Amino acid sequence: LPPHQLHWKHLRPTSMRAIRARYDPYLQTRHRVEQLKQLGHSVDKVEFIVMGGTFMALAEEYRDYFIRNLHDALSGHTSNNVAEAVRYSERSNTKCVGITIETRPDYCLKRHLSDMLGYGCTRLEIGVQSVYEDVARDTNRGHTVRAVCESFHFSKDAGFKVVSHMMPDLPNVGMERDVEQFIEFFENPAFRPDGLKLYPTLVIRGTGLYELWKTGRYKSYSPSALVDLVARILALVPPWTRVYRVQRDIPMPLVSSGVEHGNLRELALARMKDMGTECRDVRTREVGIQEIHHKVRPYQVELIRRDYVANGGWETFLSYEDPEQDILIGLLRLRRCSAQSFRPELKGGVSIVRELHVYGSVVPVSSRDPSKFQHQGFGMMLMEEAERIAREEHGSGKLAVISGVGTRNYYRKLGYELEGPYMVKHLEVCL
Fold this sequence. Notes:
Blueprint: H1 13-20, H2 25-38, E1 45-50, H3 60-75, H4 82-90, E2 95-103, H5 110-119, E3 121-129, H6 133-138, H7 145-157, E4 161-166, H8 175-187, E5 195-198, E6 203-204, H9 208-214, H10 223-236, E7 242-245, E8 255-257, H11 264-275, H12 282-285, H13 287-294, E9 302-310, E10 313-322, E11 327-336, E12 350-358, H14 378-392, E13 398-401, H15 408-413, E14 417-419, E15 422-426
Parallel strand pairs: 1-2, 2-3, 3-4, 4-5, 5-7, 12-13
Antiparallel strand pairs: 6-8, 9-10, 10-11, 11-12, 13-15, 14-15
Helix pairs in contact: 2-3, 3-4, 8-10, 10-11
């Protein structure tokens, strides 16, 4: 396409690779895995993110073809359907440890969630943008804020991790109202996401907002005010939430107004230092990040537990941390499902592990390196504690795990078996 007709999505690095592979999911996967291997990365574990639009709005036949080919590209098998592709992917040398699908609240209903479980999807990125009903209406979101809350509830009850896209600096909001919406987002149990992608509003040619900006009816925050806002938002993030991104990966020439810096998170963290605040989200505290930026390694590691209520369920965030240095080594998200749980496998007193993650350098599966933190037994210890809480405190007779297709064998070794899309273990309930 000529430059003036190019949509910004076509110019992101991910999109450029997709275009080169003519959007063929099999070729995209094979090319990218090969490229990472040549760069010296370990490729025995792969995570997919299906991005660039509302995947669940596409025809079911195309979705099945796409997901089938992602799994087949890892296993080398040619499958006839998704279920077969998933079965072979389980045994592949390059393991699929998770699939993330970008969607919207109106394409995150029970039928969509069940389809995504069948794909081997473990995490959802849900476009929220604002918690204000008037802003959702004015920006033509096409869904209500109530639909956002319902999608979070259904998603967590199905075991998914929920990452939300939020967009500060939308028209008619203003700085203080922007800050207030993030207080609401993190503290109101109807929201409380597991992760966040923060995408400050950008003015792109060819949009309705571009016309408002051109005629002076919309004005972006100044670069300094935006850094201030992001710094204030990051200070609000609870320790169980991970901030995945702080701005979109869009080439600057396409942006008419909005974010002017390519390193917004870095500038916001520096501003926080001046303000005497700190960001305690999962990513900032990860052992690998701490080692790279601050040259610190964990010394005294202990199990930390944080409980909170969210989306109709009881959540427990378990982690191994060095509390003295605020370093996070591994985490587990455990949920006591609500009575509205719609999956048959999760009805009648079931708890679910929505995430188990040990941070640090990637260690090839079934090898041990004493200096690296994955495969040190932290995962097993977190699972044991989750089983204890589910049995003794939740009174659950069963613990389910939403597992990446390629990590199912890990849970089999811990005594779990496949039931529907979940790995499950029956517990002896203490009375």
